[in-house]
């Protein structure tokens, strides 16, 4: 029996996309590959409802590389970044700033604490937030943050790595200037490719980048002819094209709805189990649940995988023993979710 | 008929390794994945004859990311890098330094000009060179550079991206402190993974890194338990393990010899064609040949691909019209090389 992944990444891939992973990567400095890149770019801009003048950076590496690159291409030493830090991934933006000696000012949020916009430092060039703080499973209201940024003339940069495909991410409606996504979450591809979508406003505000590999100017220049400055993860790009066509065909709302339905089903069926949804503002991408019967979440996840061949994940840091994270992304069906619920029932109540 | 790649990367992959590209990537923050990483690390250290105390960084991204990371983890603002610049890829080290405001001093080499060690700035912390300047197909004598570095107490850092597997790369014999390789050249895997092998001496000289994603300290810390700080390109790692086992079984000398034989065969059979080996010090990885019949190399490569379904590559910059690069890396057989020679004969002389 194949192992089922209810993880926030990597996630279950479709057979068709998996198969493309076996394609011999071809030489890419030619029109054939440029055509693939152009189509990927067009489809991504469409899926995110990117306003005119937006453009796309395709860069080999993980989502964290994208977070760093999105910071260092826009905030100069004498400027400042504003950061919403509601957990480990918000904190990551702050850690990057510290390591790069970039000035920043952050607001730290306790679980489910509302963003008090009055406390945000308005003397910043750009605001950085996660769409979904994946360590605790909390989704932010991007529209209201976007309005705040617009009003205060700050660029709005969103790590949508785990939210894309599950929650609504709409560059126009939410007034976003930079969106970071990675291949191995909602796109349900292997890890290795990071994609950053930039608004005209972000592009016009680019600064001299102090990294050679992460310099957006070179990527934006080369994508004009469907190329990248350095060898991209070619096989993942082949898979990306197939996946984007599939998403485009059904429409992104279909996938948002699918994740939402799986999330609702899961949350409705754990009510009499010792599992309690952690945040009141969950993303459709994932349910972070507290284990309330004194078991260690970390040990539970290991035991559960052995018993049922189903992978869930704990959280990190001091939530490692407390939270179980159950993903709703990727090629999962309602049948898979039913199976998970049956296993959880058997585990906790000794019955299927 | 499948297209044959005689490119310096990506290169022809074996069926077995290609097939692994279709594996569903599994959750990786566990002992199962750590086991894979440990075996990869052990085999890489063995293949490069790395001295005791050496360690390995696995990082998602292209070889250029590895070049930048190897520079910025060792050269502080008040220190200096020495660079051997014999073409576009040597120049890349210099460009990275410029963009990062790292002090450097370079020696520029004309085609086949010997390295005059007296002209190298000895007041540098580390020396950076390519093993094989891939733009012109020139291999350097790493052993003599290693001796020079040792004598002058400079760390010796080698981009072996295109030379690994084709030419001898031996960390002990050549006294190398850092080797940069990438997945899509001699390893014959899809692009997306960069591997950097570091000596004890390099590791002891690490500086505070100003990039979050490229900070070697975190990678070296996490690899102790078979992990990486950020999601690695999992599917390529699966393929890497299979490939390393295959290389280990036959021994790396088998593969060096294979590339050497293909290179010799090719070079022996173009003698009466309007193709002339460019450098007197070619690598086994590739033959860069000048086209001597006034044709544009760039146009030739395009025409040749259409006629024979065989991919060769031009060079870049001002050599674009002049040089054709013919790779000898990856899953190519003597039969493939014979076929190439037949096609070249037909193209230039109208006969097979």
UniProtKB/TrEMBL annotation, chains A, B:
GO terms for molecular function: oxidoreductase activity; transaminase activity. Residues 29-279 form the Aminotransferase class V domain. Keywords: Aminotransferase, Oxidoreductase, Pyridoxal phosphate, Transferase. SUPFAM superfamilies: PLP-dependent transferases. Pfam families: Aminotran_5. Substrate binds at residue 325. Its EC number is 1.12.-.-. InterPro entries: Aminotrans_V_dom, PyrdxlP-dep_Trfase, PyrdxlP-dep_Trfase_major, PyrdxlP-dep_Trfase_small, SP_NH2Trfase/AEP_transaminase. Coiled coil: none annotated. Signal peptide: none annotated. This is Soluble hydrogenase 42 kDa subunit. It comes from Campylobacter sputorum subsp. sputorum. The lineage of its organism: Bacteria, Pseudomonadati, Campylobacterota, Epsilonproteobacteria, Campylobacterales.
């Amino acid at each position: 029996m194949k192992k089922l992944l209810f993880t926030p990444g990597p996630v279950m891939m479709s057979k068709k996309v998996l198969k493309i992973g076996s394609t011999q990567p071809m030489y890419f400095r030619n029109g054939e590959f440029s055509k693939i890149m152009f189509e990927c770019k067009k489809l991504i801009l469409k899926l995110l409802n990117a306003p005119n003048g937006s453009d796309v950076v395709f860069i080999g590496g993980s989502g964290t590389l994208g977070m760093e690159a999105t910071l260092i291409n826009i905030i100069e030493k004498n400027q400042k970044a504003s950061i919403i830090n509601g957990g480990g991934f918000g904190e990551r933006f702050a850690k990057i700033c510290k390591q790069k000696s970039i000035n920043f000012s952050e607001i730290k949020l306790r679980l489910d604490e509302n963003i008090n916009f009055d406390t945000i430092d308005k003397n910043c060039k750009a605001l950085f937030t996660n769409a979904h703080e994946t360590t605790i499973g909390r989704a932010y209201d991007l529209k209201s943050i976007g309005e705040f940024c617009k009003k205060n003339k700050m660029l709005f940069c969103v790590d949508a790595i785990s939210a894309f495909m599950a929650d609504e991410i709409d560059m126009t409606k939410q007034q976003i200037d930079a969106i970071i996504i990675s291949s191995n979450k909602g796109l349900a591809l292997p890890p290795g490719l990071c994609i950053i979508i930039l608004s005209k406003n972000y592009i016009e505000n680019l600064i001299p980048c102090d990294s050679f590999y992460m310099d957006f100017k070179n990527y934006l220049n080369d994508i004009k002819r469907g190329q990248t400055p350095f060898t991209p993860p070619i096989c993942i790009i082949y898979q990306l094209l197939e996946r984007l066509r599939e998403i485009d065909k059904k429409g992104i709302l279909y996938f948002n709805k699918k994740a939402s339905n799986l999330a609702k089903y899961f949350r409705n069926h754990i009510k009499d189990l010792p599992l309690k949804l952690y945040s009141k503002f969950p993303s459709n991408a994932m349910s972070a649940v507290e284990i309330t019967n004194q078991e260690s979440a970390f040990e539970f996840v290991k035991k559960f995988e052995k018993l049922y061949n189903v992978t869930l994940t704990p959280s990190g840091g001091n939530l490692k023993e407390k939270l179980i994270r159950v993903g709703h992304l990727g090629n999962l069906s309602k049948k898979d979710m039913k199976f998970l619920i049956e296993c959880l029932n058997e585990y906790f109540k000794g019955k299927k």
